[in-house]
Amino acid sequence: QVQLVESGGGLVQAGGSLRLSCTASGRTFSSYAMGWFRQVSGKERESVAAISWGGGTTAYADSVKGRFTISRDNAKNTVYLQMDSLKPDETAVYYCAAKRGLFGTIQSDYDYWGQGTQVTVSS
């Protein structure tokens, strides 16, 4: 019983930035590892970033290292994804997900999912 709601998606120019937010409700937030995933049109959903329940451990897809930053504020029940230097091929629906236990990047390990937010990067 965890509800996740993403926000912050939209249209940006190539090289621009967006910060996605995901707010959780319904159950205590701090005991869940969190992840961000994205699905590019015509491709499978892929892991973008993950963060442990305490925020001390993070992981990123190689393609976004150095440009994206995942963080969380447990007092606000919110996880963020700061995306810098966005590329047109990163146009996708971005999903927030919550997972009991250790953080991870495998989609099937996640227990709760948000509805997704569209990010469009124009050339």
Description:
- Helices cover 0% and strands 51% of the residues.
- The protein has 123 residues and is mainly β.
- A hairpin with a 6-residue loop joins strand 4 (32-39) and strand 5 (46-51).
- The termini are far apart.
- 33% of the residues are buried.
- The mean pLDDT is 93.
- Taking all Cα atoms into account, the compactness measure Rg is 13 Å
Note the main sheet: 7 strands, mixed
| SS class | mainly beta
Secondary-structure element order, as H and E? Answer: EEEEEEEEEEE
Q: Beta-strand level of the residues, as a percent range?
A: over 45%
Low-confidence stretches: none
The strand count comes to 11
Distance separating the two termini = 40 Å
Mean pLDDT, all residues: 93
Tally of alpha and pi helices: 0
Q: How much helicity do the residues have?
A: under 10%
Gross morphology: globular
Summarize the model shown.
With 123 residues, the chain is mostly beta strands.
Q: What key phrases describe this protein's structure?
A:
four-stranded antiparallel beta sheet, globular, seven-stranded mixed beta sheet, 123 residues, single chain, mainly beta
Architecture blueprint of SSEs:
Layout: E1 3-7, E2 10-13, E3 18-25, E4 32-39, E5 46-51, E6 58-60, E7 68-73, E8 78-83, E9 92-100, E10 112-113, E11 117-122
Parallel strand pairs: 2-11
Antiparallel strand pairs: 1-3, 3-8, 4-5, 4-9, 5-6, 7-8, 9-10, 9-11
